[in-house]
Each structure stands twice: as C-alpha cells, then as structure tokens.
Amino acid sequence: MHNVSQEHAMEEMPLSAAERARFWRDARFSGMECLSATFLTHEYAPHTHDTFSIGAIENGSQISTIGGRREETGPGHLYLIDPGAVHDGAPGGEGYRYRMVYPDAALLAEVLEDVTGRHAKGTPSFRASMLADPDLASAFHVAHRRMEEPAGALEAQEGMFRVMAALFARHGRMIVTPLGSREPTAAARARDYLAAHWDEDVGLEDLARVSGVSRAHLIRAFRREFHITPHAFLTDLRIRRARQFLRDGAAPAEVAADCGFADQAHFTRHFKARTGITPGQFRAR
Predict the structure, then answer these.
(1) Rg (CA), the chain
(2) Angle between helices 186-196 and 204-211 (to 10 degrees)
(3) Are residues 112 and 203 in the same domain?
(4) Beta carbons within 8 Å of 203's beta carbon, 6+ residues apart
(5) Side-chain-facing half-sphere of 3: CA atoms under 13 Å
(6) What is the per-residue DSSP string for 181-237?
(7) Distance in angstroms (rounded) separating the CA atoms of residues 147 and 73
(8) Which CATH number belongs to the domain containing residue 242 in this structure?
(9) Is the pTM above the cut of 0.85?
(10) Rounded distance, CA 91 to CA 204, Å?
(11) 100/205 same-domain check
C-alpha cells in the first residue's frame, strides 16, 4: 500500500479573491474524487456525473435543480445524486461551503457488501436527491474532514464507509431493470445517438431523423424527459469524456481539440461551469 501522503494527495486552488476549492482523488477509496469548496458567485451549469454525487452543505445555502425539482438547501441537508441525474447549483444568499464525494456504483456496491455481508443484487440508487437529515449530514462532515486531514488509512476508510452505508440504509434502494423491458422513446433514441457520436458535429436534423419526430418536438421531448437540452447534454457528455482524458494525463489544449471544443478557452469555460475547477486544476491532481 502507498503511504498516506501518496494516497491522499490534494491541491487547494484559489478560484477568486474569496472562493476556494480543494479537490483530490483518494487512493484509500479506489481513487474516489473528493471536493471541499466555498462558492460565493460560481454557478454550476446543468450537468451529470458518471458516479454518484454525495455531499452536504456546512454553511450558507445553495439553490439547485435536480431532476426538474428546484430547492434551496443549507446545513443539515444532504445531496444524494445518482449517476446520470442532471443537476445544477447556484449560491443562495451570500454563498455556501460544502463537501462532496463521488463514488462510482462499483465502490458503493462494494461498501454495501462489506457492511451487510450480502451480495448486492441490482443497481444502487437513492430515493431522493435533496433531503434533510441533520444527523447523517453531520456524520458525513466528520468523515469527510478525516479524509481531508492527514489521518491514517483505517481511520479515514472506516468513517466514510460507515457513513455511506448508513446513507444507503436510510435513503437508498436497489433497482433491478429487466433487459428489453421498455421501448426507447424518441428522446432516448436521440440521447443514445449523441452518446455514440459525441465527437462528431451532430446537427438537430440528424437527431430528428434518428428519433423519428420533428426538430421542435424533439427539443421539447428531450427537455421533458432528461431536464436538459440536446446541445447541453452533448456538451456535458464531452466534458465527462474530457475528465477521463485529463485523468490519463492529456494536456488541456489537446483534450479541448479531441473533445470538439472551439479552443482551450471555450473548453475551460464549460469545464469549470460543470466541475467548479479548471481543466488544469483537475489534471494537476
């Protein structure tokens, strides 16, 4: 096993005169991405993650729309966002400070199996994305601080594992979806086409042809089903691909070109709007 400093490498990054974010990938949790941040003006564009997004606000408040539901949340509230769920965020009042972890489904299932001693059947999911649970929010903050501080592997792992298991026990569920049980909708066909052609210059006419409906109908249907426009979905998909390229060590300028952005400035603007940090800061860790 690597030593604690290698496993727990992180970088604190000034975003503006008063905004700060600390981002790291923690090898004690299979490289799980972690974030603690203070935002006063930064607004997240609608976006998704390949992983779960689990976190809580320490102080202040954030106004978020998740799955079409808009709510202002503060201390005592939890974010339990499933992979692929569209969400955004903006400061409420004078801003907020919050902590987040981003475990993938495999890691969460592993935690649940370790705690329960039973094989996880189905896909982990949470019943609600924004909810009030002061006790578990407080426990999450304590566990997250142990991860952020130079604590030993056992202390950090035990605290966060127990919290994730408790969160799922109280607010989670397993979903089992039979294969081929649902005919894809027009919006789903457009989504799947974008996912397969994310690096191409796809036009609205292409999506309408694939989905079998008019262009105007497609935009309405796509937004109604996925709470995001086709263009915003494509941009978000490209950012998700870009994150993987950056993790693999590619330079931001190279990633911008490979992911279909006009230039590095265009790429940086969209990347920060969806992650809270710049591509260079993301790649540095």
Answers:
(1) 19
(2) 130
(3) no
(4) none
(5) 1
(6) -SPPPHHHHHHHHHHHSTTS---HHHHHHHHTS-HHHHHHHHHHHHSS-HHHHHHHH
(7) 24
(8) 1.10.10.60
(9) no
(10) 33
(11) no
Pick left, alpha or beta for residue 68 (phi over 0 → left; psi -120 to 50 → alpha; otherwise beta). Answer: left
Residue type, 253: A
What tokens were used for 10? 């992180």
Distance CA 73, CA 60 (A): 9
Ranges under pLDDT 70 in the chain: 1-17, 151, 176-183, 284-285
Q: Are strands 32-39 and 77-81 parallel, antiparallel or unpaired?
A: unpaired
Spatial distance between the Cα atoms of 131 and 284, rounded to a whole number of angstroms: 33
Question: Do 154 and 199 belong together in one domain?
Answer: no
One domain, residues 211 and 234: yes
The Cα 195–Cα 160 span in angstroms is 33
What tokens appear for 271 in the block?
Answer: 């990347």
The C-alpha atoms of residue 2 and residue 206 are separated, in whole angstroms, by: 49
Structure tokens belonging to residue 117: 């001693």
| pLDDT tens string 131-188 | 999 999 999 999 999 988 876 778 778 889 889 989 999 999 887 655 454 567 899 9
